[in-house]
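Reproducibility note. Readers wishing to regenerate the assembly model reported in the main text can use the exact inputs given here. Chain order matters: entities are listed in the order in which they were concatenated for prediction.
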Amino acid sequence: MKWMHVTYRIAASADDIDARAEALAREQSVECPAAAVRDVRVREAVMGKVIAIGPDGPDHFRACIALALETVGDDAGQLLNMLFGNASLQPDVSVLDVAWPDGLPDLPGPRFGVAGVRERLGVPRGAITCTALKPVGSSVAALAALAGQQARAGFHLIKDDHGLADPVSAPFAERVPAIQAAVDAANRDTGGRCVYAPNLSGGPRAVQGQLAICRSAGVGAVMLCPLVLGVSQVVELVRDELDVPVLAHPALGGGLRIDPALLFGTLFRLIGADMVIFPNHGGRFSYDVASCQQIAAALSMPLGKHAPALPVPAGGMTPERVGEMCASYGEDVVLLVGGALLAAQDPARAMRGFVEAVAAEGVKHG
Amino acid sequence: MKWMHVTYRIAASADDIDARAEALAREQSVECPAAAVRDVRVREAVMGKVIAIGPDGPDHFRACIALALETVGDDAGQLLNMLFGNASLQPDVSVLDVAWPDGLPDLPGPRFGVAGVRERLGVPRGAITCTALKPVGSSVAALAALAGQQARAGFHLIKDDHGLADPVSAPFAERVPAIQAAVDAANRDTGGRCVYAPNLSGGPRAVQGQLAICRSAGVGAVMLCPLVLGVSQVVELVRDELDVPVLAHPALGGGLRIDPALLFGTLFRLIGADMVIFPNHGGRFSYDVASCQQIAAALSMPLGKHAPALPVPAGGMTPERVGEMCASYGEDVVLLVGGALLAAQDPARAMRGFVEAVAAEGVKHG
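Running the prediction on these inputs yields the following structure tokens for the assembly.
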């Protein structure tokens, strides 16, 4: 019998917590009263078990619940489902952490990881610089021109905004080859190795079409939103299709009541993200310093056979924060700055300034 | 220019709400400061616009924001993304409602709807009865025997638990033909038309394999979890693959801070759900009466060209609640009871009792 140990935070009184935790253990496994579980094997080897309960502030408890790995198999969607599928509908519960005493579910993990991404991007040391193509609504020509400007400014990585899917103003099939060509042209001029990561989106057939366009254009990375595409689709792509690094975007993930370090750190890494975007503290989003550090830690801490992935703290970052962010995250980080550069009076100069500031930090800490 | 009008609930002070709503309008469209939007067309036709702001309780406001339909296209994932992708990461915001003054995005809606499901199940009037195959961990033989018992008891619809994916104890490829055969045998004996809805799960390749098994076994409906599979995958299935009704499960949806009537009512209906499971009030989940009524209303209210879908209030329902639920939801409802029947001393008798109670309500109200 193999189990995963899931720590839930539950709002309950001291009188109720034992029964509440037992109910949660059943909810996330057999989905019925214990009396309905007549098969001894199911009762012993599959029904969730409360392992420990401890206090966690006023009227809150932490309950560690063992869930059978056999209910998960090797499917990431089913992993999310067993962790929190039904319990997401019970507002008194959130998921804090998972431990894997009997081994991890069979998921691919990062195909490239920190070392593979560094090799692809030609950045052996120091922080990796990334910027975004925006705003949605721009023409293909405008986005390609912007990408060329960004590549010439020295960015290592350029990604689509996650709002750039397949709009009439810049259809994927026209946009991606044009942007890749602009980046290629800039690379030829500068001798750089800037990589463009288009945003995959839509149903599986749409994504397959986009992948063919990416291959044909010689794209060197992709971005995707695992919680919009479905984590199981991402796993199939990583296992069977993609031969470039994956940049994962956290869209839709903020409300899930799954701890950010577990969701964006451990789970995104397990499904194969090489780089994970998350809202840095002090930007447009509200994650605090500790949460951000925990996400970054979850991306690099030992996790079975899996390579470490790169944190991409983002969301309203500015060039002024380069020093602080390099000091905070260390050199294995992707610094993503988008809108702040585009809003500058002289965007090209702001881009160069950002890239130079990151390079200077690398020398300082190197 | 075509827009959708999204109503967000925002925690903010009266001094801050104007700036906060403006920032949200940009976040869910151009994702950058207004100063970075230099293209006049993008500024006028794509950048989100605050339409109205009103109070909504202490330190909370409702902001109606216009978002350009051209950023959504015909992709359901992108619709979720533009509604709430980034804003999900901002805990001061939730989504309450969407209005479509310029028309709906091009999504399939229910292929069968209330009338089509009734025809398929052979239930022209009255509440439809549904039960679940559980617990996960059971053998194929045990699940098939249970399905036969349920079909003989007179249930119109039998569904897999959403935790029953593709476990070693009952692999999809063995389970589905065996259960369908058991239901077919019972139908031959009873003259009934009970339909089995297996649970589709996993990545697109896995789902395609499961669909082939369903077709070969003559399955008459499917269940799926749109927020686990990815809504875009569901739309492709409904548009191009499925010729049976779709039962949608709300797994993972509870934490999203999207109003349940919008998410499980309008959005699940738009992507093609013919029947939508949601947590009924008074069960294991915490939705109140008003929320449940609003979900049911959203499934049947006028919505472009789309057929109405059936509400499936569920989650710890008991036979004793049949009368109340029939009175509350009217006859266009699927009454789903699972664990309570299996936990009874004599499950077969409890099943028959439930089916008879629903039939008696039909006569009473008919």
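We highlight two features of this model. Chain A touches chain B through 88 residues (CB under 8 Å). The longest helix of chain A spans residues 172-190.
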